[in-house]
Q: What sequence folds into this?
């Protein structure tokens, strides 16, 4: 079984979609990273 570490703002949605389409069993670990801004002075 595959283990997928997924971050909401990444391209791993493509991998999740592919695994679903191919009916490959996988374990999903999702994370959400808050967006932050870098301010230049």
A:
């Amino acid at each position: 079984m595959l283990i997928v570490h997924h971050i909401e703002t990444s391209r791993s949605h493509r991998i999740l979609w592919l695994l679903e389409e191919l009916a490959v069993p996988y374990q999903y670990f999702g994370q959400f990273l808050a967006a932050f801004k870098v301010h230049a002075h």
